[in-house]
Amino acid sequence: MKRTAVITGASRGIGLAIAKQLGLDGMNVVMVATGSAENNMDAIVQLQKNGITVGYIQADISKHDDRIKIVRDAVRLFGRIDVLVNNAGVAPLQRADLLEMTEESFDRVVGINTKGNMFLTQAVAKQMIAQEPLDGRKGVIINISSCSSVVSSVNRGEYCVSKAGISMLTTLYADRLAPEGILVHEVRPGVIDTDMTSTVHGKYNKLIDEGVFPIARWGKPEDVANAVSALASDKFMYTTGNYIDVDGGFHIRRL
User: Fold this and answer.
1) 84-139 pLDDT tens trace
2) pTM: predicted TM-score of the whole model, two decimal places
3) Which are the catalytic amino acids?
4) Could you tell me the maximum CA-CA distance found in the chain, to the nearest angstrom?
5) Does residue 253 sit within a domain?
6) CATH of the domain at 118
7) Domain range enclosing 185
């Protein structure tokens, strides 16, 4: 029986790269995104052309009923959920100084990035617990957070708070779910070349040129996807609650 992976925010960027890689690893792939299947047909066809079995669910992870729908429809499509990749996330609509941040912006970013993660994981974990083990485990959950979980950006504080929350969710769920045969990991991307960073290319190009990143290039969605692939494999069966920085060495403190 093939394993099934559910990836949120899977229609583009990091999420699409993850969906493609896990599909190439031999899994059924359930793409979750807020847009319709019709509007994301190019992404779906891209996976299908690689021989990947694909399901698509239109859902907003910030909404309770949509989170239940994701679990229900994924199980209807493929019978089980073996891997959950919590990738969906948003940046503030407008970068604002911490002293000018609005409650509306905070609620939106945290509601999607952190609350959505918390309660989708809860729903999927219950499904994983109920199903029979496959390959010696009931499931793997991988959270895509950010270097911003530990790095201050005072003009997008709500984003930093939301990602720091994901890091704690990784710890909490790893602790709670290990006895259930479910492993939980976290991947912290750095500066990755996606739609989300397209408006700040100049800023990060300058930092790369100045040597802020030991590996002096932009990260690619495939760099993150490769880390997820490793964690979702059978190579980390005695590891849970840890994180991997995929940031070109940005986390290294240097004098």
Assistant:
1) 999 999 999 999 999 999 999 999 999 999 999 999 999 999 999 999 999 888 99
2) 0.96
3) 159
4) 54
5) no
6) 3.40.50.720
7) 4-246
